[in-house]
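Exam review. A common question shows you a sequence with its structure tokens and asks you to describe the fold in words. Practice with the pair below. Do the first one on your own.
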Amino acid sequence: MNKDTVQDGLVVSMEYTLSVDGEVLDSSQDAPPLQFLAGYDNIVPGLEREMIGMKIGESKNVVVSPSDGYGEFDEDAFMEVPRGDFPDDMEVEIGMELGISDEDGNHQMAFIESFDEKTVRLDFNHPLAGAELHFTIKVVDLREPTSEELEHGHVHEEGHHHD
């Protein structure tokens, strides 16, 4: 296995900037590089595919379409919930993120799109659904994953230990 290029099963450290519509939404500029285990769906598919074969020190600009990013915007991914389903002491705000579980225990995130005294309208789209993602990336390191990381399918940051 050539460990000099990005490929499935290696831990990739990368510096990145994410822009949507010319606005920087996220960047590793003031933080340590992002680490991810390639081939385990830890980053959006379109970005991961473009990174395969990149070498340490190599930079690239990648444009990811919604279908390869956070999905197309789904007009049906909304739900009206009675205001009474929320705790009385909970302050409801537009844009607020909520973790919702259905009867089967499936957990997903939703955002409050709008509300009145009777109803709260939830949006289950990812905030970047429908967005074209513009990444500027640089591969800064590659390493073999630990057996625990492989078993769990994701990177364990420093200080993240299961005893």
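Now try the second one, then compare your answer with the model answer below.
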Amino acid sequence: MKKNDFGDILNKWENGISQKNAMYNWLQNNKIYDKDANIAEIPLRGKNRRRLLNSKPDAILDIHGLSEAGAWLSLDKFFSDAKYNSYEKLRIIHGKGNRSQGEPVLLHTVRKYIEKCPFAGESGYEKAANGGTGATWVFIK
């Protein structure tokens, strides 16, 4: 199967072929995944993704009460251990930041860490029963 180059995508766009589908197909064919993409716009990637979304996490880290620096160190060890142990899904409990002055510090720390971590994949907030916006789940690549 011939892989398209990016020029082909631009030509398809100019000729009225669905931009979203053309770009998605190009990314998939070239094994490029964007963890920042809007998850609602990306079709399910099969049974494995659905299984992970519905599964319990392999490990949970609670960083309540830690400073930003302490949380970063804890996250670093947590993700390293998860990669070493071949975990697939993690939960990080950071709280909603209701007691923070201004914006929720630990939530932003977790988000920054996930963006920088080379083996952190797709992520999102937990269901309300598991902490809602006070906890984040992450798939490990």
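Model answer, second protein: The chain has two domains: 6-32, 48-140. The beta strands are 59-62, 89-93, 120-125, 135-140. Full marks require stating both points clearly.
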